[in-house]
Each structure stands twice: as C-alpha cells, then as structure tokens.
Design brief:
The complex is a heterodimer of chains A (356) and B (666). Chain A has 356 residues and is mainly beta. Chain A contains 2 helices and 30 strands. Chain A has helices at 2-19, 68-73, and strands spanning 38-43, 53-58, 64-65, 81-87, 90-95, 100-104, 111-116, 118-119, 122-123, 126-132, 135-140, 144-149, 155-160, 165-171, 174-179, 191-196, 201-207, 212-217, 223-227, 237-241, 248-253, 263-265, 268-272, 278-282, 287-290, 303-308, 315-319, 326-332, 338-346, 348-353. The longest helix of chain A is centred in the N-terminal third of the chain and has 18 residues, at 2-19. Chain A starts with a helix and ends with a strand. By secondary structure, chain B is mainly beta. Chain B has a 22-stranded antiparallel β-barrel. A 5-stranded mixed sheet of chain B has the order 1-6-7-4-5. Chain B is globular and about 65 Å long. Classes of the chains: A mainly beta (356), B mainly beta (666). Chains A and B meet through strand 9 and strand 29 of A and helix 1 and strand 24 of B.
C-alpha cells in the first residue's frame, strides 16, 4: 500500500509539473460575459512574429488577461494588430501585417468572423476602422477604404482614396480620411479625402500639411488633423477643418509624436506631445488649456496611445516601454493624477472601452 | 497606431541588420599554422593562454557541415543565429556578446562589414578552407594586425595553401555536392606550381537551390503545415591566389575573391501572411596582399593590405509605396592597410607594435542618407613574456574613429584605450595541466547602420563597453591504454557590458531611434572534452563534447519589466556532441546539438518562449582509389530525426535533408 501511495504521489507531482510547464492551456470559455467591466488594450506585437495580442483589464476586479483572443479562440491574432473599435455587439480588430480583419464578441473575445483583407492574394494591409449607420469603414495601405455591412459582415465596396490612408473621422454625414503617403519617404501625400456617407463616394480632397495621420472630430463637427511632416524640413502640424464647409480654420506646426491619436471627450481634446506630455486642447476656443495634464512627478518611458472615458473623464495612456518589451497601461483621474496601472503585451497601441 | 515607418524600417531591418558583406582587415594565417600544432585528428582545443578551438578540413565531414556556420556550431561558447535554409543568414555570437563582437579573419585579414558589423557565415562554404580557428579574447601570437586585438572573439578562416613539389607540380580537385532543396553545387580547385618559390591556387564554385521545405508552425495553439517559398538561392564564387615562399623566412601572397549571391528572402512565418516578393542580390569582391618576413635577428615584419567593394540590391515589390515597391542599393567600399613589427630582445620575451588604418565609405539610396566616410585607426603595443612556468601577455590597443558625412552632420570622432592582460601557469611540468586567465577591455563603436541609417537627426552615441574576465584550465594526457588521448578544458567567465546600443522604432523625426541604454551581466562556463580511442581491428573511435552555460541578464534599469531577465536568444545550456569511427578510409560520424529554451524578447514570458531543440546529423564518408585516382565521397543527413525546431522566432529550420558529395583529386 505504501509503495502504491508513493508512486501515486510521484505521478501527481509529475502531472503538476506538466501543468505548470510552458504550454498554453486553452480553457474553453462558456460564460456569456465573463470578461466583466473594463478595457481592452490592442497590442501590436512585432513585425517578424505573430504575437499581436488583445489584453483585457477588468477595472473592477483589477484582473489582467494578457491575451483574451488566444484564450478564447486557441489561435493568435497574427502580426501587428493596429486598431480596434466596438460597434453594437461586435468588436473589429485590424491586423496590419497579417492583413486580416478579426470580428470578435467583446463580451468574451470569441471570434465571430475572420475576414481576409487580400486583393488576389496580395495583402491590403488594413489600418483603422470607423463606423456609420451599420457600416464599418476600414482604411488599408493599398489606398482603399473598405465598406463592410455590420450585419452580414460582407465587404460591399472599396473606395479608392489617396496614398496609404490612416485614421478617419466622421462629421456631418461625411467620412474624412487622412491620406498619409507615409510609405514613400521624402514624398508623402498631403490630403484628406472627404467621402459622402450617403453615397460612399469620394467628393473631394482637402490639402493639409504633409503626411496626415491622425484625425478626430469634436462635438461641434470640426475635424482635427495631425500631420507628421517629412521628418526633415516639414514639421508636424495640427490643422482644424470646419466640418460644415470643409474650409481650413487653422493650421499650425506643433510638437506632436508620430501617429498619436487625438482623444476627444466633451470640449477637451487630449494628445501626447513629442516630448511625452499629455496636452489638453479646448475644442471650443481652439487653444491649449493645459500643456501638462498629468500631475505629480509621473514620467512615461514611451507614451503611445491615449483614450478618454466619456462617463468619468478618466484618461488612459499606454506606455510602449521602448517597443522592445511588454508595455503598461496607466489610468489617470479627470484631474490628471495617476490612479491605476496594468500590464499589457508588446507595443500597446490602442485602448478600447468595453463599457463607456 | 503603428508607426508606419517602423513598418518600412522593419521590412528592411531584417536584411540590413541581417545581411552582411565582406570588407577587410588582418592576418595570421601562415604564422598561425606554425603556431597552432593540431595534433592528430581530434585535438582542436589548444593548450594556450587564451581559449582556442580549431577544426581542420579533415574534420569538416564529421560535422555534416555545409557552411562555416555549421562547422563552428560545435565550438563551446558559440551560439549560431540561423535563419534557416541554404540562403538564410547565419551569424555567430560568442559568449552572449552578439555577432558584432566576433571578428572574422579571412587568411588573417578581417572581413569587415562597416554597415552592420556582422558577417554572414552562411555565405562561406568550406570547400577552399583548410582550417577554422576560434580565439576567445584574442590570439596570443604577437605578429598580428592591430585590429585583431579590438574584439571579443576572433574567428579565423584559413584557406588551403598550395602543397606542391617538383615531382607533383599541380593538383586538381573537382567535385559536386547535391541533395535536398534541389541543391546542386559543382566546384573545382586547381593548384599550380609556377617556380621554386611561386605557386597559384584557383577555386571556383557555383551553387543553386530552390531552398523550399515544409515546416510546422504553431499559431497560438493551432499546428499549421506550411512551405517555405521565395527561398531560391544562386551563388557563384571564384577566388584566386598567388603564393611566394622562401625558406619559411619570407612569404608573400596576393588573393582575389569574388562572390555573387542572388536569393529570395522567405521572411518570417506569419499568420495569414506570405513574404514572396523580397529579393536580395549581393556582389562582393576583395583583393588582399600579405607580406611576412622574419630576419635572423628575430625581427618580424607583417604587412597587409586590402581593398574591397560590396554591393547589395534589395527589392520588395509588395511594399506599398508610390514607386512600385522598395528598391534599395547599398555600396560599401574599404581600403585597409596594416603593419606589425615584433622583436625578441631575449628568447623568452617578445614585444610588438602594430598599426592599422581602414577607410570605409557607404552609399545607400534611402531617405536622407548621410553618405558617411569612416576612418578607423588602430595602434597596439603588446608584449609576451615567459618565465619558468609562467606566461604573461599584456597589450594596449588604441582606437580612433573619425567620420565625415556628405549631407547630414557626422558623428563626433571617438577614441578609446583598451588594455588586455593574459596570464598562464603550467601546473604540471610536461604541460599536461595549464591554468589560464585574462582580463580584457573591449569597446564596440556604433556601426554605420546604428549611426546613420535613417538618422534624420545626428545620433549621439557612445561606444559600447565591456569588461571581460576569464579563468580556466586545460588538461591533456596521452595514455598507453585503450583511451590513447584525453583533453579537457574548462573556462569560467564574467563579462559586463555597459552603454549597450539599442535600436528601436522612434517616435518622430528619427525613424529609427538608437540609444546607449543597456547593461548586461554575463556569466558563463565553457567546457570541452575530447578523446580518441586506440584502434581495435582497425576501427578508430573519436569522441568530443562541448558544453556552454550562459547566464546573460539585462540589468539596464531596475524599473524595467524585464530587469534581470535572460537577454533574447540566449540559451542557458548548449551541448554539442560528436562521435565517430574511422576504418580503412570509411568514416561514420554522428553529431548532436542541444540548445535549451530561449526567449525572443526581453521579457521572459511564456508568450515569447522559444522551445529547446535537439538536432542530429549523420555522415558517412569514404576515401578510395580508383584507376590510381583519389576519390572522396560522402553521404550526409542533416536533421536526421526530422526535428521540428526554430533558432530564430518565425524562421523554421529545415526538416531532414540529404546531401551527397563526390570528389576527385588528380
């Protein structure tokens, strides 16, 4: 009996060793909404590996799930997840290098549909996603905006825009698309396409400073454009377009980090400056209202993505930590005091609120 | 919000940081052949004051080696970074220091890559090599160009020297290697005696392969079978040398070498993506000359010179820019000259002074390139002293780097002084047991890529510095028993790297951001065991084993999430085992490499885990005479157990493959 017990113990310990080894175990997810309240962080991952991931931070329980997508689907997201957004009951994730659009259930991360963004086998390289009246709009580096029906999840149309389109904004029934041309060094594009959302056709191009990347619309229908310039003579600039008549209200060079989103809530626009500060911009006066939003002596290593939660005014900023290691999410109060932080995956490039 | 420039950069980074060309450097070949007495067929680990490992051409077949990279896998302390396949980049890192820390000498003169600082060892085949020697720290021989002292390790490739006589004034060896991946590789060597003192050697080879193979990958839990595409390789190589020698006191040689390599880059294995449009053409040529003279007075002069030209053309039709894809041209030129004078005031004391100058210029048609020209000067004073059982070497190297740039501002000129101290002690009189230790200071200057590639703003970079301590022992014994020979060497080391240069995607104007931010603490152990057994009924057995332990942790900043984690791609344990038996011209050999798990990123998390691997090779060789001609034939099986593994994340290694060799010597 004793020897039996002994071997039984040995077997148990061997099993426990197996359980703690480096293999990924897939716990099947069955619960209806087992992620709870919180925020998704889309981690781009590296170019040369399929290690993009979707982190979920439950703000109530403080639990971090580093890769919800892998856990729920038993397969990775792919290479360089660039953007994600929730519309209705679905979350849309653009995966740039793998050239796919992954549509998932935000309650549990389960894949609803995988859409290959290829043109006769050639990668389109999807970048950003926006929504309007049950349609999803996806920019791709192959100079297109795809129109996807959010009910059937089929691609209805490709609208050709300028070169290497990046972010989008919607104002007054129009879709504004930043044509960056950023893949042609020394010769970037310098236009914003305007698409009539009733007909899904491009109606005009607005000339802005070179290499426009980030767009956002404020409550009054103005569109903010951040151009990256040419990294040489042409400096980055912030341009404001009047969304009613598409005239340029103002355009000034600015100290802004490349590709940073503008997060707008109420009458405040939040952006990350080139020297790593969070700047608040009043969208009614079009003036900087706070040049250094974060209080105390908090310092980022590589601030990367910014988002603001409508309901609480909390500001979420990710830190990419030099792009070579796992990043972090930092949460600041409405007043700019650090409240909370959470671990993320590699290069956390987008924050998506599951519950606003 | 991915910075698209990162995208562009990464598309290119792989091969820029990844692919190398030849340029230039220094010398010790003929001298070293005298210095390094390879005993029998197994030695290869030498009783020297700094760790030295060697492998001769007779032993290449023991390792089923196709390229230089395959042959050096079995040295202790070495980690080969292999991107897989015949055309895949292969670089060598010694003791966790990175590929840029290993100087590669071709017949004593450095092959320098000013752009990336690393040499692709997959591009050197073994056909024209006589010997490969790895010096850890630095060679102990003083008659060397100064640049040999500048690095953390020296990999010396020594070509076959003419072995001719009046009776046999010529020698021709011709052969063909063929096998898996549609490999076909015919080659020829012609040696010709020209006069009493002059002879010439010509080597030529061409190699073609489609490089395709199946692989298994696991994307977050789902096994996928894929096939490498766009992996075709076509390489042509020709080298020619004339050799002069007069009673061993005066030698001169002039060599010309040209390699052209045209290949697809299969890229990393990515979920839902296929890299099928990236292509790379390399054309590298160099001419080098060495004059070596020893006078009666023990005065020894070594003069070397080299000129090289390397051209690289990269295209990627799928890159979505406005010019129909990426299309980049890289040209690198170098002129190099060195002179070393050594003298023995007493029999047991030798002193030397060496001076080197290298002038490099770089021409790349990428955005806002600076077109740098770099002058590097190396001066070294060294001394070897032997008193009784003690041996001492001290050297002091001075380096000076000055850059000029055509467009942007050039980096400030830099200089550094690096001392090295080596000591050895014969614990047992007949040389059976030798204790050894060294301390070495190494500075690594930012290479031209780190300093200027896509640098819109001048980058303010300091050289990386490492302090290296090594202590070890070598024990050899000859027996009259069944084991006729036994050798063991063990070395423990502690290397500390500061100001480590890191390249990462930038936030704004500098598309690539490069900074001195790293500190690495490296502690390790190298172990070598070799033995040869007395022939039994004509069967002679050989056994060798190399083990490496490396703990290389990042100590840059206690606040980092990866603080004290093992640095990427550094296995804790590596084991290389080689066993074989020879009998009447037939040899059967088994080679086994084990590497423990690694992480491919700074964080040691399961997500970034690269599993351990075992890989085995088998070779069967047969030397025979037919019609009075000497034939050599070999069957080699690489990855005999069809192990599914990667060395570099995303770059699957080939499955089991077969290679046949048939060679005739006239």
């Amino acid at each position: 009996m004793r020897s039996f017990k002994h071997s039984y113990l040995l077997l148990l310990s061997a099993l426990s060793l197996l359980a703690t080894s480096c293999s990924k175990d897939d716990d099947p997810i069955v619960a209806e909404d087992n992620l709870g309240t919180g925020v998704f962080i889309v981690n781009q991952g590296a170019f040369s590996a399929s290690n993009a991931s979707l982190t979920f931070y439950n703000t109530t329980t403080k639990k971090v799930t580093l890769d919800v997508f892998s856990a729920a689907n038993g397969t990775g997201l792919g290479s360089v997840a660039n953007d994600a957004a929730i519309y209705g009951s679905k979350m849309y994730i653009t995966v740039n290098v793998s050239s796919t659009l992954e549509v998932v259930d935000p309650r549990n991360g389960k894949l609803i549909k995988h859409i290959d963004m290829k043109n006769n086998g050639v990668a389109r390289q999807p970048r950003y996603v926006a929504f309007y009246k049950n349609k999803a709009y996806i920019t791709s580096y192959d100079n297109t905006v795809a129109v996807i029906d959010t009910a059937s999840l089929t691609i209805e149309k490709f609208i050709t825009v300028g070169r290497n389109p990046e972010q989008m904004a919607i104002a007054n029934g129009k879709l504004y698309v930043a044509n960056s041309g950023g893949l042609t060094f020394g010769n970037p594009d310098n236009s914003v396409s305007v698409i009539d959302l009733n007909t899904n056709t491009e109606t005009k191009k607005i000339t802005v400073p070179a290499n426009p990347v980030s767009l956002a619309a404020d409550a009054g229908g103005d569109v903010y454009v951040i151009s990256a310039g040419d990294y040489d003579k042409i400096l980055p600039a912030l341009t404001i377009i009047n969304g009613t008549n598409d005239a340029i209200k103002s355009s000034e060079t600015t100290d802004i980090g490349y590709g940073n989103t503008i997060a707008i809530a109420g009458n405040s626009a939040y952006l990350i400056s080139g020297d790593g500060k969070v700047v608040v911009f009043n969208t009614t006066t079009d003036q900087v209202s706070n040049a250094n939003f974060i209080t105390g002596n908090f310092k980022f290593a590589t601030p990367f993505a910014i988002a603001v939660k409508e309901s609480t005014g909390e500001v979420f900023v990710t830190d990419a930590k030099g792009y070579t290691a796992d990043g972090k999410l930092y949460i600041f109060s409405r007043e700019g005091a650090i409240k909370d932080s959470a671990a993320t995956g590699l290069i956390p490039g987008k924050v998506v609120f599951k519950n606003n | 919000m991915l910075n698209k420039n990162i995208f562009a950069l990464n598309a290119i980074a792989f091969f820029i940081l990844g692919f190398s060309q030849n340029t230039l450097a220094q010398s010790d070949s003929v001298k070293n052949l005298q210095e390094v007495h390879i005993q029998g067929i197994t030695s290869g680990v030498l009783k020297s004051a700094t760790p030295v490992q060697a492998i001769t051409s007779a032993d290449f077949s023991r390792y089923s080696a196709f390229s230089v990279a395959d042959a050096v896998r079995n040295f202790s302390g070495v980690a080969v970074r292999d991107y897989g396949g015949i055309g895949g980049l292969k670089t060598v890192s010694v003791r966790s220091m990175g590929a840029g820390y290993t100087s590669v000498l071709y017949d004593g003169i450095p092959i320098n890559d000013a752009q990336t600082g690393q040499v692709d060892l997959g591009r050197f085949n073994l056909l024209n090599l006589q010997e490969i020697i790895l010096y850890t720290g630095q060679p102990i021989n003083l008659s060397l160009p100064a640049r040999s002292y500048a690095n953390s390790a020296v990999l010396s490739l020594i070509t076959k020297q003419p072995q001719l006589s009046v009776e046999k004034p010529y020698g021709i060896t011709a052969g063909v290697r063929a096998g898996s991946f549609s490999l076909i590789n015919p080659y020829v060597q012609w040696q010709q005696r020209l006069s009493n003192n002059w002879s010439a050697v010509l080597n030529a080879s061409t190699q073609k392969a489609n490089g395709n193979y199946k692989f298994k990958d696991n994307f977050g839990g789902r096994d996928t079978i894929g096939r490498r595409v766009n992996s075709d390789v076509s390489t042509q190589q020709i080298d020619w040398g004339v050799y002069y020698s007069k009673d061993d006191s005066t030698t001169f040689r002039l060599q010309f070498n040209y390699i052209s390599s045209d290949r697809g880059l299969p890229g990393p294995v990515i979920l839902n993506a296929v890299y099928q449009d990236q292509h790379l053409l390399n054309q590298d040529a160099f001419v080098q000359a060495v004059y070596d003279r020893i006078w009666q007075s023990s005065l020894h002069l070594l003069l070397t010179a080299k000129a090289s030209h390397n051209y690289q053309h990269y295209t990627d039709a799928s890159f979505l820019n406005n010019n129909g894809g990426a299309n980049e041209h890289y040209t690198q030129r170098e002129l190099y000259q060195s002179a070393t004078l050594s003298y023995k005031p007493f029999n047991n004391w030798e002193i030397s002074y060496g001076t080197d100058a290298s002038f490099t210029d770089m021409d790349i048609d990428v955005y806002r390139y600076a077109f740098p020209k770099r002058l590097s000067l190396y001066n070294v004073l060294a001394s070897n002293l032997k008193t009784g059982r003690f041996g001492f070497q001290a050297s002091l190297l001075s380096m000076y780097i000055n850059d000029d740039a055509e467009t942007n501002t050039a980096a400030k000129s830099k200089s550094a002084l690096s001392p090295t101290l080596v000591a050895s002690f014969e614990a047992i009189k007949n040389g059976e047991l030798l204790f050894r230790a060294f301390y070495k200071d190494v500075y690594r200057y930012p290479n031209l890529s780190e300093q200027y590639y896509y640098a819109v703003q001048p980058r303010n970079l300091q050289p990386e510095q490492s302090r290296q301590f090594n202590a070890g022992a070598v024990y050899t014994k000859n027996f009259d028993s069944f084991t006729e020979y036994f050798l063991a060497s063990v070395d423990g080391y502690y290397y500390k790297v500061t100001n480590k240069i890191f390249s990462f995607p930038g936030r704004s104007a500098e598309i690539l951001s490069v900074r001195n931010i790293g500190k690495v603490d490296i502690r390790g152990l190298d172990l070598n065991l070799k033995t040869r057994f007395k022939p039994v009924n004509g069967y002679a057995g050989l056994l060798s084993l190399a083990y490496t332990y490396q703990r290389a942790i990042d100590i840059s900043n206690p606040g980092d999430s990866f603080y004290k984690d093992q640095i990427p791609y550094t296995p804790k344990h590596t084991l290389a085992l080689n066993a074989g038996v020879r009998h009447n011209g037939v040899g059967l050999f088994y080679n086994h490499i084990f590497s423990s798990s690694r992480y491919y990123l700074s964080n040691n998390r399961p997500e970034y885990y690269v599993p351990a691997y075992h890989v085995s090779d088998l070779s069967l060789t047969y030397n025979f005479k037919l019609l009075k001609k000497q034939f050599y034939t070999a069957v080699e099986v690489n990855n005999a157990f069809n192990s599914n593994y990667v060395i570099v994340k995303g770059y699957p290694m080939p499955p089991r493959s077969l290679r046949l060799t048939l060679q005739l010597t006239i």
